[in-house]
Amino acid sequence: MASCAGYRWWLAVVILAVSVPEPAFSNPQTNQVGKLGCSPYNFSDVPDSMSQLNLSFADLRNQLSANKTFATIEHTPVYALAQCRKYLSTADCVTCFDAAVSATRNCSIATGARVIFDGCFLRYEDSYFYNQITDPGTYPVCGKRTAGKQDVLNTTAQQLLYELIAATPKINGFFAAAKLVSGGGGGATAAYAVAQCIETLTESGCQQCLTLTYSNIVSCLPKSAAARAIAAGCFMRYSDKHFFANNQTTNLAPFLRGGGSSRKKKAIIWGVVGGVGIILVLAAIFVLYRQSRNPKAARRGDILRATQLRGPENYRYKDLKSATKNFSKEYKLGEGGFGDVYKGILKNGDVIAVKKLTMTSSRAKADFETEVRLITNVHHRNLIRLLGCSAKGEELLLVYEYMKNASLDRYIYGDKRGILNWKQRVDIILGTARGLAYLHEQFYVCIIHRDIKSSNILLDDDFQPKIADFGLAKLLPESQSHLSTKFAGTLGYTAPEYAIHGHLSEKVDTYSFGIVVLEIISSRKNSDIQVESVTEYLLEQAWKSYENEDYLRLLDETLDPNECKAKEVKRMLEIALVCTQSPPNLRPNMSEVVFMFSSDRPIFQNPPNRPTFITDLENRVLTDT
Q1: Is the entire prediction scored with pTM above 0.70?
Q2: Statement to judge: residues 357 and 496 lie in one domain
Q3: What is the number of alpha carbons within 13 Å of residue 60 lying toward its C-beta?
Q4: How many CB atoms are located within 10 Å of the residue 100 CB?
Q5: In a domain, 135, yes or no
Q6: 323 three-state secondary structure
Q7: Which of 248, 378, 479, 600 is most buried, judged by most C-beta within 10 A?
Q8: What values do phi and psi take at 81, rounded to 5?
Q9: What string of H, E and C letters represents the secondary structure of 460-507?
Q10: What is the mean pLDDT of the chain?
Q11: pLDDT at 392 (0 to 100)
Q12: The domain that contains 184 carries what CATH number?
């Protein structure tokens, strides 16, 4: 009966789509971006629900036909939304919408669906979703084609995307299409880009969504001439070829800080990027708790079976014990200050990593709760994914995605030293920077990791980095520049203002990142002090190499010298050193660090000075000798 009702509904949809005369159009841009998203749940009252969905599609189509590019409708139990790129004509918009309606038939009688085309977006659900910003379906779609002058396009497109992030949330309708040309004459390179948020978001919600999609789309820039990035609440696209008419471009200057001169001030754009606030995280934790007590609540507003508010899966302790062979030594992957980590193989064949904490103190319980609350709600390709947890008595277990290549420290000064080539090392540095930029500036609130080090950076099958171990993480309220707290972390990676005075800000992670960069370049532990029979810490040696313009002196000797250009090594060294500046206001934000990788701007705006403590250390060594 249900299948017959579903058939009649889809027949009605087809009739709806074909009975209206096909409008004239030039290019409705019906290339599908990403995969169709379907809810795993079906309507309970199929005939009535399908009838309401059919009415919703008809109403949306009527709104779009009335020269609109955004439409919403509510026919209980259906909430539906349609949006077109504003550079499309009305006829093209309606044609794109019709194609999206046809695509959703693959979701059958599901309670929700989402389809994204280059030209339009369609989504429906059985609950309110109009203020949703992101979900696990947030990802980039990189093109396979490379531009003729990819390096120039990289810089040009990134600059244009930065400006779109800043301007679009301030524009009525949350849409902007823009073009930027670098160079001149026959050597000119143009970048075209658009940014759009659904109009039911707030300005801050649009800002947050675009910042997230930006962090995804820039990952395509090194190799792709065109790319898209999608989220539940927004869309971004760039290309080296025009995909909208010249008369459809938006003048961004009035919406950028400093007007037209803002192209020369890219870094300030990130100043407008802010979190929603700690209240939202607390609310999210409350929702997680309520959902864990009421599993049925989790199904509402959920297309891909999870959202940023979905809690971790609860694993049975005996299943994890069996998967790790009773936490045997042969399955042990590593150990740290907050628990041992084991490889696990579930009955269905899935490979996982299980961190085992023994709750011998309130600290262990607090670390457990911190990791569960924080990692459950962060989604980024360079952050480890928490799959679930389990608790039995005093034993607490966290279940993570399994990282085949283990931790970074093994590859730079451990048993696998010499495997990573120069390009892989640069990719690891950049990926780690992107992960930290997300934590600091692109999540709802600023999260300070507090323990960034080589052993807490894991590598996947392709040697891409994922930041792990959030047991020490702290939230920085939006109204505060720093926290005063007792030191916790790893000496050698910790910024002096935090180790000595307990002043904690996101710049503490920036400092630690700089130290990790030096370790990756040199394959030396930051704590090693004997180099060529000279007492010299890694950071001190790095400053000497920079001051003497002997940039290759710091390089790991196992690297192929033909792969490492002095200019590239110098820039990596400069990035590390600017991140370890003191006082902390001299250090860049991590989003600025990400930008440094694709920009040819000087790293240091003024001649740098060694941090005071390095000079003091050198003087003390000289006095002792």
Answers
A1: no
A2: no
A3: 34
A4: 26
A5: no
A6: helix
A7: 378
A8: -145, 140
A9: CCCCCEEECCCCCCEEECCCCCCEECCCCCCCCCCCHHHHHHCEECHH
A10: 79
A11: 75
A12: 3.30.430.20
Tokens describing residue 500: 């000595």
Q: Do 252 and 214 belong to one domain?
A: yes
- 451 flagged as catalytic: yes
Minimal CA–CA distance to 304: which of 466, 107, 105?
Answer: 107
According to DSSP, the residues that pair with 190 across neighbouring strands are: 181
Residues 343 and 485 in one domain: no
Tokens of 515: 């130290």
Whether the CB-CB separation of 124 and 112 falls below 8 Å is answered with yes
Please check whether residues 100 and 164 belong to one and the same domain: no
How far is 364 from 356, CA to CA, in rounded Å? 10
Tokens of 343: 């490889």
Do 616 and 500 belong together in one domain? yes
Domain assignment of residue 257, given as a range: 146-272
> Structural domain tally of the chain?
4
The total number of residues shown for the chain amounts to 625
Instruction: Give the whole-angstrom CA distance, residue 172 versus residue 191.
Output: 23
Shared domain for 229 and 93, answered yes or no, is no
The structure tokens listed for 286 are: 């409350």
Catalytic one among 126, 302, 409, 451? 451
Q: Is the N-terminal amide bond of 583 cis, ω within 30° of 0?
A: yes
In a domain? residue 216? yes
**Quick count: other Cβ atoms within 10 Å of Cβ 170?**
16
Find the CATH number of the domain harbouring 486.
Answer: 1.10.510.10
Token couple for 121: 């977006």
The letter for the amino acid at 92 is: D
367 versus 225: the higher-pLDDT residue is 225
505/390 same-domain check:
no
8, 96 in Cβ contact below 8 A? Answer: no
Q: What is the DSSP string of 195-253?
A: EEE-TTS-HHHHHHHHHHHHHHHGGGTTT-SEEEEE-SSEEEEEESS--S-GGG----G
187 and 110 share a domain?
no
The sheet with strand 120-125 has its strands ordered as 37-38, 113-116, 120-125, 78-84, 70-75
Which of 401, 429, 451 delimits the end of a domain?
Answer: 401
Task: Give dist(CA 101, CA 60) in Å, integer.
Answer: 11
Long-range contacts of 317-321 (CB under 8 A, 24+ apart): 317/390, 317/391, 317/392, 317/395, 317/397, 319/346, 319/347, 320/344, 320/354, 320/390, 320/397, 320/399
d(CA 110, CA 124): 10
Q: What's the pLDDT tens digit per position in 594-612?
A: 888 877 788 887 777 776 5
Residue 156 — φ and ψ, nearest 5°?
-65, -45
Query: Which of 244, 272, 300 delimits the end of a domain?
Result: 272
pLDDT digits (tens, 9 = 90+) for 459-509: 998 899 999 988 787 776 554 555 666 677 788 898 888 888 888 899 999
